[in-house]
Each structure stands twice: as structure tokens, then as C-alpha cells.
Specification:
This protein is α/β, with parallel strands linked by helices and about 280 residues long. It has three domains: about 30 residues, no CATH class; about 45 residues; about 170 residues, Nucleotidyltransferase, domain 5, CATH 3.30.420.10. The chain has a five-stranded mixed β-sheet, with helices on both faces. The protein is globular.
């Protein structure tokens, strides 16, 4: 059970003490009493600038990101940049020479797509999360994409990155489209959690694949989709509420799936490729 659900089960009016309830539920008392602090308006402005810089060049790390922000007259230190990048789940990508073999224990699950011919729908699904800036606040967009057809088969928006949000969206897509052979993700905490791994294992025939740390090309199709939706839709309009974000994402994803031709798909739409091959 997610920690947030456990917190909601604790009853302050109960004769059982809060300490005892926390112990029975396996929740630290500090977790129960913790009140998240809202992000300041100044930090929200900085995060919006960082998001655009990251979409422009995802190879920027904390040092280069700090330098670019300071060029925009934003006074910020490297530790502050690192903190905001963590909140935004911003991944610095880079390619590095394969000089040493990776031992099995280095990653929770291996990357299965290297040199794999992707020749059919539902062979590989890629999943990822991206930060969405709003006028006051931010949301997260979770996307599930069929790699062969580039069809976005599932997506959801949330103001938190709880693993239960991801697993529920994923299971909904499985119910609608069937079980894929491989689901590929990065090594973010949501995707390496026991809850996520257990969810995938219940699918029996599905394998888990995870990107190598710092690999720029392992999850390229979803990363490219995030860049497209931001530059062609989300950056162009004012997003005031979560409902605005959901509406904008729904409009663009329907357009992307059903109307936007892809040169890599012989100028066909993802929906056309997916449904004609399924």
C-alpha cells in the first residue's frame, strides 16, 4: 500500500495512539506529521526557465544549467539547481564510450533493446515522466508509447509522482491493448520501486527493461515526444490549472496519434500504423 494511503488510515480521534497506529501500519511518525512545503513563485519561474533550457539541450548538467540561468540574470547556485532538477525529475543525458562491461548487479534490470529489431506493435512499450510548468505550480505527465508505431497508448497527469499513479495508468493500458512483450523505462525511483516491479511481474509474459544511466538514446522516442508536445502545444498557451494541462495534453495527443503524419512511418499516423498492424 502506498505511504499516502497508509497516512490516510491513521485516525487522530482513535483511542489507539498515533505512535501505535504508525507502528502497526509500518509508517514512520515523521512521515505522518510531515507537511510538504509549496514551491516559491521565484523557484517556479526558475523551473520554467530550466525546463526550456533542458528541452533545448538535455546534455546540460547542474554546472552548465547554472551558467545558462546566470546568463539570464537569475542568481542561483549549483546546489539549488540540483535540488530543482530533482523535483522536476530532470535527467541529464550523455553518451559515453563503452569501455567496460557492466556487471549484472550494476542495474536493477538490464537494457533489453540494444540491437533488438522492433518489428511489430506491442513488442516494446516505452514509459516516462516529464515535468509540466504552469502559471502557478506544476504537474507531471506520464506517457506510455508503443515504440513500433509511436502510438501513445496511455497517458495521465498528476501533481505527484506516486508509483500507484503510474501502475494504475499502465494497467488501464494493458486492459485496453493487451500485454506487451517488453516495457522499457529509465532508472527513476518510481520505476525501480517494488510496487512497480511487482506490477509488471503480474503480467507474467512481460519483461522489464531499464535504460543505462546517462544514456542519451535508450528512451529516445518518448523523450522526443515530450519535446514535441512542449514546443508545439504546452509552451504556446497559458496553463493556469491542472484541468488546463489535462485539456491541452488531451488535444495534442489526439492530434499526434490521429492526424500528425510521421516521416519515419512513411507519412502515416501512429494510430493508423498501430491499428492496421494490431
Amino acid at each position: 500500500m502506498p505511504a499516502e494511503q497508509k497516512r490516510n488510515l491513521i485516525d487522530q480521534s482513535s483511542e489507539v495512539s498515533i505512535s501505535k497506529q504508525c507502528h502497526l501500519l509500518g509508517v514512520n511518525r515523521s512521515t505522518y506529521y510531515y507537511k510538504p512545503q509549496p514551491v516559491s513563485n521565484k523557484d517556479l519561474e526558475i523551473m520554467t526557465a530550466m525546463d526550456k533550457l533542458h528541452m533545448e539541450d538535455p546534455t546540460r548538467g547542474t554546472r552548465r544549467m547554472m551558467d545558462e540561468l546566470q546568463k539570464q540574470d537569475i542568481e542561483i547556485g549549483r546546489q539549488h539547481v540540483r535540488k530543482l532538477m530533482k523535483i522536476m525529475r530532470m535527467k541529464t543525458v550523455y553518451c559515453r564510450p563503452r569501455t567496460t562491461a557492466i556487471t549484472p548487479g550494476d542495474y536493477k534490470y538490464p537494457y533489453l533493446l540494444r540491437n533488438l529489431p522492433i518489428i511489430r506493435v506491442n513488442q516494446v512499450w516505452s514509459v516516462d515522466i516529464s515535468y509540466i510548468p504552469m502559471q502557478r505550480g506544476y504537474m507531471y505527465l506520464f506517457v506510455i508509447m508503443d515504440v513500433y508505431s509511436r502510438y501513445v497508448i496511455g497517458w495521465s497527469v498528476s501533481n505527484t509522482m506516486e508509483t500507484s499513479w503510474i501502475t494504475q495508468t499502465l494497467l488501464k493500458a494493458v486492459d485496453q491493448y493487451g500485454i506487451p512483450e517488453i516495457i522499457n523505462s529509465d532508472q527513476g525511483s518510481q520505476f525501480t520501486s517494488q510496487e512497480y516491479v511487482s506490477c509488471i511481474k503480474t503480467l507474467k509474459t512481460c519483461q522489464i527493461s531499464m535504460d543505462g544511466k546517462g544514456r542519451a538514446i535508450d528512451n529516445v522516442f518518448v523523450e522526443r515526444f515530450f519535446r514535441t508536445i512542449k514546443y508545439e502545444k504546452l509552451y504556446l498557451i497559458q496553463l493556469n490549472t491542472g484541468q488546463d494541462v489535462v485539456k491541452a495534453c488531451d488535444e495534442f495527443i489526439n492530434y499526434y496519434n490521429c492526424k500528425r503524419d510521421h516521416s519515419s512511418l512513411q507519412k502515416r499516423t501512429p494510430e493508423n500504423v498501430y491499428k492496421s498492424a494490431a
